[in-house]
Amino acid sequence: MPTIDEELAQLEKDIRQLKIEYEMFFGGGRKRPPTEIEWRIDLIIRRYAERGGDLKFNQRFRFSNLSQTYAKYKDVFRKRTAQREEGKVQRHFGAAAKAIEAERSKTPTPLAVSQAAETAKSVAAATSLADHHPFSMICSEPEKEGEKVDKLYDAFLQAKQRTGEETSKLTRAGFNEFVRKKTKDLQIQKNCRDVEYVVDVVDGQVKLKALVKS
Fold this sequence. Notes:
three-stranded antiparallel sheet; 11% strand; mainly alpha
């Protein structure tokens, strides 16, 4: 399992990559927005917003900066996407991104650190059902791929919370056992190695699909 510092480093890397890929999307360099990276960032931010007490001061400080930067980027992306859908042309996205980076480079106040959890929760809450995109991951040995299964669980739980479905009986341990057993059963039945799990919302209900990969 990665350490907190490693995950925060990955979060920072993902946020930078998200900005680059959105710029490509808005510039016509790619056909679809980078929703997979965005989903991964949302999951990490949500996870650490809920376990802020586990972070040291310097980690909370870093997490606060990243959360606030992502919240600002996401607001820019949302507005820019709306303009794109309305057929409007916005030629100043690069300038907006630079402004965000300049804001981030400023020394945060202690208040910014104390607001890290609130900022992260706001980011998670801002992602509505209308913004939902399927989450998928492939595994072959779930008992050795704890990080993958954890991300799948987080995606499944978050999707259920968005739709208002009951989650009180859902546990990480029970979910892990389900994935382990389901994977092994499909590997035996279909004579395959890899199984793809997809979390999606169909007609307002969360579905967890297990697909055999050839």
